[in-house]
């Protein structure tokens, strides 16, 4: 399985390099390290969100409420910042993480304790969290002029020439890598995704594990709430509206199986980068946003087709080896 | 019967010439193998119109494979199928359906969300001139079918999910009637029915007989077989070993046919060193599955659990392993009362359950071998919350080597292994948790003879090391060859505990089936 996954990531990486190559024939500066670092920075939030979503998808679930969670959390911290500019930004980040986690706990509890399918639960909370954003803000925006310089500036601070936002993304990628490959919990996500029944017999609590997955997706959505609002310097009811589809698209392009149990950190990151490159490069080479969407859409379908074929190929190998043994 | 312009409807042929003497369906020389397993070898079967033939055999005798061949789901490797004197091929389920062969399963395969009428006429609904479904005609025809069967209480507009299982069976039969099915297969139709519902089903079978249908009735219950069937055919290990008229044959003769087999491999000779009781179960009860279960398992003992399918053996084991909850009773492990609340609980206490369905409940296909082995032991192989891959590999290597697992690498996907080797991975996985009691549910079901011998040899080694083993098995040679004592369960209760000294297969089958000694 690992070898196959690595293959997939290599293919995706090759596609990304090809894409960069094609773009740089039209716009030479695109492939410069400086610009690629910018693209990475621009895609940071999507990468973090995709990793959170991936954990949920691994357990045969889906979290449609991440973008609404992000909007709500972003609004909460922006309003706190506007009302009490003295509250230090690290504390605001903690609050964002806590609020996001609480919303994730709510999703997870409904899935675990009431046994409602996650697509239904999070379709509901998608609307609820978005509505709650309207309720707390009264529909008003929090603009740049109401945000403190520290609130806006923190993630733009540079370390070793790289913005803090990128460092945060790198740290999150590293933590997810450790979580998924080096902890019993990470192993459980894969196990219950591949074979929930056998997992029960092996002593894994399937419901609780799914609950934890939703807590994780809620937590990262919360953190991204702060990052988003401070990056785009606006908090409104409308921010990241429909963005859950980009998050899921990044996962699917990254080879994470919607059927659960298959996926890797590298895949999710590359899937997000692929979308990030398309959205940042195409305007540069004068391709309309319509084509952007069409290209992303084609990439999703192509990814699904390739993954499905990959799994079929694996099936044939099984037969061959079974005969050989 | 009303005149009707539509072709899709009930057709009742007049009684056929020589009814009851010429078989309507004959199978001859049917063989079917799966990788590593020979399911059917050169079997024959005849079904006569207006008669009920009981198909009898232990689990694994090949009954289900035969049903699947008759209903077009499996293709035989060799042999001939004759329907009404003509050789036929049944390449698909639809082909079997068109030949008038229909099966009613234990869990009826109908559509819960559709109405009774839609279920009866699915695929051959009466149409209007415009090619759309003629609902009015469909309803009235469904009404006729149900009335003709004496099922006037079923409303054709009811959604199927609102009916009980007995009534679902009636709908399934109604469907068979609506296509003029001539051969009706009933695969353990009474398993989920109450006594009253069974009576209703028998009335229905009588009706089918009266209508000239050939009925194949599969059941484990002798009283039912003698009550309703005219003929019997006994399968053993994929071969047909006897057939005839039930009125000429005693239950004892049939039991002899079922069990009188050659031993297909030698069981390991071992000297039992049985110590003090390790696990003590008393009064264990479940609201629906079992009642008042009590037994003792001693150190170094293999305790066999025998019974028919549905006797509640697996359910008891799942309760002991913390997977299902009990309503009453106590479990004492090494003198300490335990109440396992989850599988993780039991594993920690030292009781592990190796489930019956290897593919669904045992291996995690898509994960490498070493991760399969370490899955229930992750607490031990990790340190301060982090997995240590080297430890996992060491654990997996230790136990897979002991079981003589043949695999190129422990990083290989477990799905690439043969069934026997997968079973070794499953057993290795549970041994790696260092249990005190290991419960094996049908440990050698569907694996080849070589792997069976390896599993049996290993069980002998385990008890020699002081482990205690509970072995749930429906294979008599395995029960007799491996157990120190045998617990027999029937209908959720323990009906006998035998020392395995001079115990014979017939006694076990009789107790399990509830046949009083003659």
Automatic annotation (TrEMBL), chain A:
One Gene Ontology cellular component annotation held by this UniProt entry: plasma membrane
Segments crossing the lipid bilayer: 44-62, 69-87, 93-112, 119-142, 162-181, 210-233, 245-278, 290-308
Keyword Aminoacyl-tRNA synthetase: no
Record key words, sorted: Cell membrane, Membrane, Transmembrane, Transmembrane helix
Subcellular location: Cell membrane
Predominant subcellular localization, coarse grouping: membrane
Pfam family, any one: BPD_transp_2
Protein name: ABC transporter permease
InterPro entries xref list: ABC_transp_permease
Molecular function per GO: transmembrane transporter activity
Organism: Mesorhizobium zhangyense
Recorded topology in the membrane: Multi-pass membrane protein
Automatic annotation (TrEMBL), chain B:
Alphabetically ordered keywords of this record: ATP-binding, Cell membrane, Membrane, Nucleotide-binding, Repeat, Sugar transport, Translocase, Transport
Pfam family, one: ABC_tran
Compositionally biased spans, kind Basic and acidic residues: 1-20
Region called Disordered, residue ranges: 1-23
Compartments reported by the entry: Cell membrane
Main location: membrane
Span of domain ABC transporter: 25-262, 274-516
Bilayer topology: Peripheral membrane protein
Any one Gene Ontology cellular component term annotated for this protein: plasma membrane
Gene3D superfamilies: P-loop containing nucleotide triphosphate hydrolases
One of the record's GO molecular function terms: ATP hydrolysis activity
Family: Belongs to the ABC transporter superfamily.
Name used for this protein in its record: Sugar ABC transporter ATP-binding protein
Lineage summary: Bacteria, Pseudomonadati, Pseudomonadota, Alphaproteobacteria, Hyphomicrobiales
């Amino acid at each position: 399985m690992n070898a196959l996954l690595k293959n997939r990531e290599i293919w995706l990486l090759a596609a990304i390099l090809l894409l960069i190559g094609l773009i740089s024939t039209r716009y030479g500066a695109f492939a410069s390290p400086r610009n690629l670092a910018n693209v990475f920075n621009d895609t940071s939030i999507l990468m973090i969100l995709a990793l959170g979503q991936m954990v949920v998808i691994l357990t045969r679930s889906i979290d449609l409420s991440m973008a609404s969670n992000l909007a709500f959390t972003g609004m909460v911290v922006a309003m706190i910042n506007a009302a009490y500019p003295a509250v230090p930004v690290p504390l605001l980040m903690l609050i964002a993480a806590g609020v996001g986690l609480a919303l994730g706990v709510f999703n997870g509890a409904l899935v675990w304790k009431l046994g409602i399918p996650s697509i239904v639960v999070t379709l509901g909370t998608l609307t609820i969290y978005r509505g709650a954003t309207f309720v707390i803000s009264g529909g008003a925006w929090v603009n740049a002029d109401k945000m403190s310089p520290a609130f806006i500036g923190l993630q733009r601070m540079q370390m070793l020439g790289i913005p803090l936002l990128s460092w945060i993304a790198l740290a999150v990628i590293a933590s997810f890598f450790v979580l998924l490959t080096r902890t019993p919990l990470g192993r459980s996500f894969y196990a219950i995704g591949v074979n929930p029944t056998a997992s029960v017999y092996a002593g894994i609590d399937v419901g609780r594990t799914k609950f934890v997955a939703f807590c994780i997706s809620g937590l990262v959505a919360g953190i991204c709430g702060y990052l988003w609002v401070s990056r785009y310097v606006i908090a409104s009811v409308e921010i990241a509206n429909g963005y859950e589809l980009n998050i899921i698209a990044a996962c699917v392009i990254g080879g994470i199986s919607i059927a659960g149990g298959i996926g890797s950190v590298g895949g999710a990151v590359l899937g997000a980068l692929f979308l990030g490159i398309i959205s940042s490069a195409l305007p540069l080479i004068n391709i309309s946003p319509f084509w952007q969407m069409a290209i992303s859409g084609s990439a999703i379908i192509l990814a699904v087709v390739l993954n499905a074929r990959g799994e079929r190929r694996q099936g044939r190998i099984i037969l061959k080896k079974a005969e050989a043994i | 019967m009303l005149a009707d312009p539509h072709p899709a409807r009930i057709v009742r042929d007049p009684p056929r010439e020589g009814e009851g003497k010429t078989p309507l369906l004959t199978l001859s020389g049917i063989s079917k193998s799966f990788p590593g397993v020979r399911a059917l070898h050169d079997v024959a079967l005849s079904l006569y119109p207006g008669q009920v033939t009981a198909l009898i055999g232990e689990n694994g005798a090949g009954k289900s494979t035969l049903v699947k061949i008759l209903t077009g789901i499996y293709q035989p490797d060799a042999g001939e199928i004759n329907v009404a004197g003509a050789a036929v091929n049944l390449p698909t389920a639809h082909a079997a359906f068109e030949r008038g062969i229909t099966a009613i399963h234990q869990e009826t395969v109908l559509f819960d969300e559709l109405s009774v009428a839609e279920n009866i006429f699915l695929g051959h609904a009466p149409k209007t001139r415009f090619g759309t479904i003629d609902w009015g005609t469909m309803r009235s025809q469904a009404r006729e079918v149900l009335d003709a069967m004496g099922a006037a209480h079923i409303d054709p507009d009811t959604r199927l999910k609102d009916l009980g299982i007995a009534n679902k069976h009636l709908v399934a039969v109604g469907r068979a009637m609506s296509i003029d099915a001539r051969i009706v297969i009933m695969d353990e139709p009474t398993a989920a029915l109450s006594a009253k519902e069974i009576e209703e089903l028998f009335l229905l079978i009588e009706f089918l007989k009266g209508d000239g249908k050939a009925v194949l009735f599969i059941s484990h219950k002798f009283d039912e077989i003698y009550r309703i069937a005219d003929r019997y055919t006994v399968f053993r290990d994929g071969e047909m070993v006897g057939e005839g008229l039930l009125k000429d044959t005693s239950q004892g003769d049939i039991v002899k046919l079922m069990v009188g087999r050659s031993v297909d491999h030698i069981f390991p000779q071992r000297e039992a060193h049985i110590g003090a009781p390790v696990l003590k179960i008393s009064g264990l009860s479940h609201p629906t599955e079992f009642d008042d279960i009590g037994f003792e398992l001693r150190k170094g003992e293999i305790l066999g659990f025998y019974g028919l399918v549905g006797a509640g053996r697996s359910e008891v084991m799942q309760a002991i392993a913390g997977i299902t909850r009990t309503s009453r009773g106590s479990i004492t492990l090494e003198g300490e009362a335990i109440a396992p609340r989850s599988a993780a609980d039991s594993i920690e206490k030292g009781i592990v359950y190796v489930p019956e369905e290897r593919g669904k409940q045992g291996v995690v296909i898509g994960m490498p071998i070493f991760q399969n082995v370490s899955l229930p032991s992750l607490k031990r192989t990790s340190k301060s919350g982090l997995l240590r891959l080297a430890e996992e590999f060491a654990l997996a290597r230790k136990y897979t080597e002991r079981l003589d697992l043949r695999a190129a690498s422990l990083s290989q996907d477990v799905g690439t292994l043969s069934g026997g080797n997968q079973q070794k991975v499953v057993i290795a996985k549970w041994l790696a948790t260092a249990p005190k009691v290991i419960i094996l549910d049908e440990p050698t079901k569907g694996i080849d003879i070589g792997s069976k011998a390896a599993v049996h040899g290993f069980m002998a080694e385990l008890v020699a090391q002081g482990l205690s083993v509970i072995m749930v098995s429906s294979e008599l040679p395995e029960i007799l060859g491996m157990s120190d004592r045998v617990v027999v369960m029937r209908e959720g209760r323990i009906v006998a505990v035998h020392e395995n000294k001079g115990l014979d297969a017939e006694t076990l089958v009789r107790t399990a089936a509830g046949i009083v000694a003659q």
